[in-house]
Write a structure and sequence with these properties.
With about 230 residues, the protein is mainly α. The chain has one domain. The protein has a two-stranded antiparallel ribbon with strand order 1-2. A hairpin with a 2-residue loop joins strand 1 and strand 2. Helix 2 runs antiparallel to helix 3. The longest helix has 28 residues. It is globular. The mean pLDDT is about 85.
Length: about 230
């Protein structure tokens, strides 16, 4: 049960969901209709490609899956926590995500698969970085778990069973953030194309740099921030 959700958990979950929604819609609209923020559809497409003997498509899809996993590996190296709690490495992880998204843009503009792979790697890093908070699985790059938790919550309420309202609101924040990212990303893609990804790159970069500066406060004040 979630006893308390601090402000940074709400802001972080919602903001990262917006980022993932933007990245995913740009990949879908601009690069072979590929999902970049999750692997369910990609794995299904890989199965179809293998069944059809399409070696080129299979190689591309495998590259996307591998890139996402590599991003999760990077998160494991950088964050080193299985539970979501603030620490100095989150700032570094966000800066790495920003760099991956920024470097993806010129590659995507040349329709290179490496660009899509870098964007998928950024999503894998972000998805693994959030991990869990107070026993609740927090995934900001896809919505299957959030919609599942939403359904379970509603089912419990219909049966008169105890249900944690904060879990419901966390799901709704992430769902709304991802949808808002999809809408804004699609609108911007019409005018900016793949350069739209510079927006989530800037957002994650600013968040990472700001958080690192915040964590450096003890060096000036002698007091550790929360």
């Amino acid at each position: 049960m979630i006893a308390r959700l601090p402000a940074w958990a709400w802001l972080g979950a919602g903001g990262l969901a917006v980022v993932a929604g933007q990245v995913n819609v740009v990949g879908y609209l601009g690069f072979e209709h590929l999902a970049l923020s999750h692997l369910t559809g990609t794995t299904s497409l890989l199965g179809a490609a293998l069944a059809g003997g399409d070696g080129r498509a299979s190689a591309h899809l495998l590259a996307m899956i591998a890139a996402f996993v590599v991003g999760a590996v990077l998160s494991g190296i950088l964050v080193q926590d299985s539970a979501l709690r603030l620490g100095c490495r989150y700032g570094v992880a966000l800066l790495v995500e920003a760099a991956l998204l920024a470097f993806a843009v010129p590659l995507l503009q040349r329709h290179a698969i490496a660009g899509a792979a870098l964007a998928a790697m950024a999503c894998g890093l972000q998805n693994a970085m959030t991990a869990t908070y107070s026993g609740t699985l927090v995934r900001t790059s896809h919505l299957t778990g959030m919609f599942t938790d939403l359904g379970v919550f509603l089912g419990h309420r219909l049966r008169g069973l105890p249900a944690e309202p904060r879990r419901l609101w966390l799901c709704l924040v992430i769902i709304a953030g991802f949808l808002a990212g999809g809408v804004s990303g699609a609108l911007l893609h019409v005018h900016l194309g793949f350069a739209t990804l510079y927006l989530p790159a800037a957002a994650t970069g600013a968040a990472g740099a700001g958080y690192i500066a915040y964590r450096m406060l003890p060096l000036r004040t002698g007091k550790m921030p929360p």
